[in-house]
Amino acid sequence: MDNMTQDLWQHYQKPLFLLTQALSCDFSFAVITAHNPASTRLSPSQNRLLDRQLLRDIELIGSPYRAMVGASPDLSHMEKSWAVFVDRSMALQLGKKFNQYAIYMVEKGEVSLVPCTLAGHDEVCLGLFNDHVRLVYELPDLAT
Which of 7, 35, 78, 139 could bond to 47 as cystine, CB 3.0-4.6 Å? Predict the structure, then answer.
């Protein structure tokens, strides 16, 4: 495993989730993005196209979902994401389809980093989901 991949894995373990409303942790859900597949930095328009494709797939599943933004703690990196109330198997399927290294699973209020296409990493429990949440008035515009 190269240093860049190891660094990414470490960064993934410090997520901040921006939400406009609190999410109930009574039900399991996944946090999935389609932005920047395989950690390849794409343009905003490319990311928007992938995001629309992911949303279409989520709507076809028919499970509840909520828009959110996954971010680094200092907000220097942000990706449009979705809280999707699906089981782990379906969440991993979506993550792999959109070539994501990992997804987040929230089960019984605890959030875990779960590898999708990134071999050589084990799932990591990150503690309480709500400890990683910041409520915002509106989600940031990721057009730039």
Answer: 35
